[in-house]
Amino acid sequence: MDFPWDAVDWVMLDMDGTLLDKHFDDYFWETLVPQEFARRHHLSLAAARQEVFARYQREEGTLNWTDIDFWSRELELDIPALKEGIRHLIEVHPDSKPFLEYVRRLQKKVILVTNAHYKTLDLKMNHVGLLGYFDQVISSFDLGAPKEDRRFWAALEAQLHFDPQRTMLVDDNRDVLQTAREYGIRYLFFKGISSSQAPAETSRRFPVLNYFTELMPAGAAVAPDNRAETPA
Ligand SMILES: [Mg+2]
Q: Of 88, 106, 135, which residue is a domain's last?
């Protein structure tokens, strides 16, 4: 795709599912947490799954959804410790680093915008070593509202003074993209491949990006050289 890079100053990227393989989160919340909940509360796995999934549903689209301290209390499980225990499963999508290097070379402002809780953000970024690519890392917990809420974008603009008309956002959450569209962010992409273990998803409302390389001219994804792994 011929993307008008000259029209963009701000590149905003979601973390889970967009830059990182969502398989880690799916496995964690859909398999590991119900198993541990069953063990802790002496339930069958089926009953535990039903209970846990009902509680997830109640919190979707809120800050509680990604607040691992909330879930520790709610489920009476040590969620940070459980995550730490499977940190080796955290993976970066193979197209993420070439894209981050590319937008750095273009000298765009590169911002990580995530609903992830600080503890999850730290665990993941320390594990995958992507932090050096970003000018700013923004957690919804900094701004007091999730990305699905218009107030997130208003607070972000007040902090960064970005121009929504010269901003792009890539996210694997359609509700987030819809809110960003209503706020006035101009270049929106739905990340179709969010998990290495799930089929690509589509969207009728937003242009779909299966791989970041679709936004890069052929040959732009040069092999990393021998410098430090991330830019200074
Ligand atoms: Mg995501």
A: 88
